[in-house]
Design a protein that fits this description.
five-stranded antiparallel β-sheet; 4 helices; alpha+beta; single chain
């Protein structure tokens, strides 16, 4: 069942999103060759708690860290490690959630580490653009799959692999709620969007094949051909006239 959020609930989610984006902006300044993904995790947890919230991901279904740190061919759910040291030319996706007074925010961004190859830079640009192409279809009266179809139609001409196993999702008191928002599909299907709905849109796009594999830790998910993957995600609320992004400090 899709939950329609009250203005009070949206306000709490907006504050969770503000804390999340403030943490992301802080982490961005630390992304450089030589830093470990464990260090980024520690910085994130400290910052989130100092701002009066808690990390949504830590302990969620047993996940051992506060943020997911997915490097290069890791699509999602990369576990921070002292042994994983970023190097020049890597890309890293920081995907994490914030719980503020019982309400969650969730967002993801793929960052370059120093100078990256042109084809990987283009992958990041197209994946981020795909998020906003999908967002343009997030308005009252449209169907969930209108978002999905817009993302797929935009990405397909580039020949990239669109991950199908993981999707966007509703969010609120629970980190994952209905509706689920795939990054592919036909338009005009699924629930009709209504004001007060809150959910995350998150294209995950691979440089090569769409197929993925989950490693033996049961979390880390990599591209089947080990080519890089990009991931951009925002949490939004449907308004009377369109949508509002809840996980950014500035209007986009």
């Amino acid at each position: 069942m899709i939950q329609i959020k009250s203005q009070r609930e949206i306000g709490l989610m907006r504050e969770a999103g503000r804390i999340l984006d403030a943490t992301r902006q802080m982490l961005k300044t630390h992304i450089r060759p030589g830093i470990s993904t464990d260090q980024l995790d520690q910085l994130a947890e400290k910052h989130i708690t100092q701002l009066g919230a808690s990390p949504s991901f830590k302990g969620y279904h047993g996940f051992p860290a506060s943020i997911c740190t997915s490097v290069n061919e890791v699509v999602v759910h990369g576990i921070p490690s002292k042994k994983k040291i970023l190097k020049e030319g890597d890309i890293i996706t920081l995907d994490f959630g914030v719980n503020y007074k019982g309400y969650h925010a969730d967002s993801a961004t793929t960052f370059p580490v120093g100078v990256i190859k042109e084809d990987i830079k283009t992958l990041l640009e197209i994946t981020e653009q795909a998020l906003y192409v999908g967002l343009r279809m997030a308005m009252p009266g449209n169907h969930v799959s209108d978002i999905s179809h817009a993302i797929e139609s935009f990405v397909k001409p580039y020949g990239y692999g669109i991950v199908e196993e993981f999707t966007g999702h509703g969010i609120g008191k629970d980190l994952h709620e209905e509706p689920f928002v795939p990054n592919f599909g036909q338009p005009g299907q699924g629930p009709v969007l209504k004001p007060g709905m809150t959910f995350c849109i998150e294209p995950m796009i691979n440089l090569g094949t769409k197929h993925v594999e989950v490693l033996s830790d049961h979390w880390t998910t990599v591209t089947a051909d080990r080519k890089p993957s990009a991931h951009f995600e925002h949490m939004i609320v449907i308004t009377e006239t369109g949508y509002d992004i809840l996980t950014t400090l500035t209007k986009e």
